[in-house]
Amino acid sequence: MDFFTYHNGELHCEEVPLSRIAQEVGTPVYVYSQRTLERHAQVFTQAFANLNAMICFAVKSNSNIHILRVLAEQGIGADIVSGGELYRALKAGIPREKILFAGVGKKADEMEYALSEDIFMFNVESMEELDLLQATAKRLNKTASVALRVNPDVDARTHPYISTGLKENKFGIPMESALESYRYAHSLSCIRVRGIHCHIGSQLTAIEPFVDAFVIIKNLVRELLSENIPIEYIDMGGGLGITYDQEKPPLPTELAAAIAPHLKEVPCRLILEPGRAIAGNTGAFLTRVLFTKDNGSRKFLIVDGAMNDLARPSLYGSFHDIRPAVVREGNTEVVDIVGPVCESGDFFAKNRPLPPCHPGDILSLMSAGAYGFTMSSNYNSRPRAAEVLVSGDRYRVIRQRETYEDLTRLEELS
Ligand code: LLP
């Protein structure tokens, strides 16, 4: 559920008309609803409250510090994958004891930064990484708390680019070598084994793959405990899907109910790393129609947003619902909505039925709160979009639109 609704034919974010934001802040622009964000955070937290789960938001999905701050106020921690995300999480006031460091390619300087900030835990994905973490911790005279990411070889049944729990994927340690890897980790002087981690993919719309993975992990945990390798935490990663189109993903309460009986069998605390399920439907991307074009066989709406701003349709062929900020009367037309970037892959939708649209109209691409701005770039030297946070009948710009000076600021101009 979200707070983007039409009142009298005008699309609003909470009580603010989107066309007003487009007018005052300009386009393209990301607009987030604070009420939706808080609600999603609460729904997720409450669903897992009985299981005493720790919820760490996947910062990669939306890393604006104002968004992270709202989540911090809801008691949510952070799942980070880089030094940059650690910097943002700390700046947003997320407590260090709620920060988890994941990722398949951490560098020594990032480990050093995280160790010096005393974060909660590292999710380690290979023995080479473990050796580097041991050496780095030793140099700093620190102990690193660690979970090993295990790859359970479960098919998440999602887009191949965001499926991560199959043997063929680059992620985690294969099941066959998990026990041996844990024994090794446990033998290292500056490594404190505390947990196990797995993340099988993103935008999952079925519950079975989560449960299948959990059972595999649970059985491994039993084996580890019988060897006196202490596993206090089971981190099941993120991955719960959202509705972009017609999908019917499980509710957080359904996921909690499916996992609960298995969790009871092991003396571990659950950790979750949701990104999309919390942030996805809290955001919309606004873009203005520049031109309409009819080449005889197809009709195009050429808009001022592009694949550099919102990459998901180009990259994964993803569907985003597209709604006019103000609905015009008239017959629906089937159109391609495309951006100004010089690539045919620069589209937001193809063959999409829409009410009539004219140059100057504002379109809202829905469900753009996760993996929207964070995946944007400056391709074609396009300054990145502004970001706006709405609360009730007010809004504020939480990231300024980039300027041309910003584009060249780090280049030697002399
Ligand atoms: N934990 C780990 C270790 C992850 O790799 C991810 C996402 C998450 C948590 C959060 O997953 P979520 O709850 O958001 O599904 N750019 C793609 C999604 C990439 C997901 C990468 N990993 C997209 O736009 O669909």
From TrEMBL:
The active site is at 342 (proton donor). Homodimer. Its cofactor is pyridoxal 5'-phosphate. Substrate binds at residues 276, 312, 316, 343, 371. The keyword rRNA-binding does not apply. Residues 36-279 form the Orn/DAP/Arg decarboxylase 2 N-terminal domain. The keyword Transport does not apply. GO terms for biological process: lysine biosynthetic process via diaminopimelate. Pathway: Amino-acid biosynthesis; L-lysine biosynthesis via DAP pathway; L-lysine from DL-2,6-diaminopimelate: step 1/1. The modification N6-(pyridoxal phosphate)lysine is found at residue 60. Specifically catalyzes the decarboxylation of meso-diaminopimelate (meso-DAP) to L-lysine. InterPro entries: Ala_racemase/Decarboxylase_C, DAP_deCOOHase_LysA, De-COase2_C, De-COase2_CS, De-COase2_N, De-COase2_pyr-phos_BS, Orn/DAP/Arg_de-COase, PLP-binding_barrel. This is Diaminopimelate decarboxylase. It comes from the Bacteria.
